[in-house]
Structure formats: structure tokens, C-alpha cells
Amino acid sequence: MSISSAGTAISGNTTSPLAKADFDNVATSALAAGQNLPQMLLSACARWAEKPAFTNLERSMTYRELAHDSANFAAYLRNALKLEVGARVAIMLPNLLQFPVALLGVLRADLIAVLVNPLYTERELRHQLVDSGACVLIVLDNFGAVASAAITGTAVKHVITTRIGDVLAWPKSLLIDLTLKYVKKLIPAFAIDGAVRWPDALKIGAKQARVNTTAQPNEVTQLQYTGGTTGLSNCRNTTGNQQTGQQNFGSY
Fold this sequence. Notes:
Blueprint: E1 2-5, E2 8-10, H1 21-32, H2 37-47, E3 52-56, E4 59-62, H3 63-80, E5 88-92, H4 98-108, E6 112-115, H5 122-132, E7 136-140, H6 144-150, E8 158-162, H7 172-183, E9 196-197, H8 198-206, E10 220-225, E11 235-239, H9 240-244
């Protein structure tokens, strides 16, 4: 997955955008103005509205689309699911276009993101869900079987499932989803009662009242877990100020 800002691609082999002079102008001014993290990111979306923000499987999403879809998702979480400020939302997605939409939607709804390794086993996933207190899980179908077994005994009340093809154009979306499920057999059968499909969540959210972030910059925005290579993963709270200082999103 390539990440573009102002039309410039970023990969793991390039110089960190944190070294660019304009980063200080964006992040520092956001902090000085008292902006929280989602406000800073939304300012970037407005600044680069027609530029590609993310590209995956030859499909690009502009900053305008990111702002639009994340607004619908935030409205779904807060007004359709009736989540309270500070509720934890687990995101179990690989590098797909759904990921930035889900993350920004969670942040601008003043909820707390819990990023989950998509390759977790049932035991590892259950540990993180219990430890974080997540009440919502967003999961790719490929990992749905693990999720369906792991959520028992956790605080998860709402599950949102998505396919890789959900944000791709037809017929490519259909071809990819069918290939993954029936040819490569990478989507084991699973069933989660009451699970909502990603496109349906966005459609429902589009009909809900808009949500405006009011979180303070020093409030917790994300629960970041270790890789768990030497045991079960451990958690670190991350505040909006800390993440703003690390952001390269729309900063140049």
C-alpha cells in the first residue's frame, strides 16, 4: 500500500517526512492552536482535498473521499451504535483503504482506537479485546473465523466485517473477493450474529447527524499494543499530542 501526500509517494525506504521543513509548520502550528489530532488530520484533508491520500490495488482515495467516508463512519459509531465518548474500537485490518477511514472515523468520533494485528490467533485476539475493553471490532473477512471464536467472553457488542473488494470498483471487486474465497480459499467460513457489513455501516452513517470532535489534545486517542513476540502483548496509551508529533499525514 502506498501512501501519498500532495502527490508524493511514501515508502519504507524513503527519508522520513518528519525531516521536511513543512512538518514543523503543520504539526507545531496545530499544537499551538490547540487542535487535537483528528482536527489536524481533517485540516490536511481540506488542504489536499483533490490529491490522492492512499492507493491500494490500483485504486486511489483522495483526501476529500477520506474526510467524507470517515465522517459517515464517525456518525455511524456515535449516533447509530450510540457509543459514548472514550469507548474503545478495535481495528483488525491490514493495509487496505478501509483502514484509514476506520481510524480517522474513530478519532473524529472522540473514541479510542485499538489497533489489532490481523495475524493474531484466537487466544491473542481475545487477550487484547479483554485487556482493552473494546466494545466494537472491525475485521476483514479473511480473519472472521478467528474473530468469531475470540469475541466470546469479551466486551465486544458490535462487529463490522469487510471484504477487500468493498472499496474497489466492479467487476474487480467481485473478481478479487471470489478468488480469495473460492480459488485461494483464504476466507474460512464464519458466522457472527448481528455483524454489519462495512458498506452498510457507511450508508447508515450517511443518514445520521454529523459528529464534531471535542476531545482535548492531551486525551488518549489510541491503545497501542506490543507485538507479543515474547508473550501476550502489552498496552501503551497514546495521546493526541503524542500522535500529532509523530504524524506525517498531509504534512508536506
